[in-house]
Amino acid sequence: MQRRSSRRGHCDVERQKQWRNNYQFFKSDMNEHALERQSLESGLRHALDRREFELYFQPKMDLETEAITGAEALIRWRQPERGIVLPEKFHTIAEQCGYIVPIGRWVLREACRQTKSWLDADLAPMSVAINISAVELRSKGFVKVCALCWTKPDWMRGFSNSS
Question: Which of 15, 68, 75, 131 has its C-alpha lying 20 to 30 A from 87's C-alpha?
Fold first, then answer.
């Protein structure tokens, strides 16, 4: 234990030496990045209420039979000023700001609603893959939301974006 603590101390001293008398010039792209993030965060705050998210379904196919065997649910944000924003642009910010759980629950409910509508239209049952954030998996009530989606489809009819 003593040795490990001693090494940490040595690393800290070395790091301090490296940064001593060191400075960086302000770059305009630093400010642009901060403004971009702030704009995305502000837009995400209201995107669910404004119904700006859309779910697309990418088919999974059996290459031998050419039959559709399932689908993957893919979220897109149709942001009024930017057009379609892909998840890699907003996912991390949504996680950091606490918006990922309500967004993820919307995705789950919407995917279940769409799956039910395909079944109601007498289409063959198929699996639908949904990407779920680790933050969402750990969130309170996640298992209950999953159970409600699959066991009580009528529950989804009354779904409000604000829940």
Answer: 68
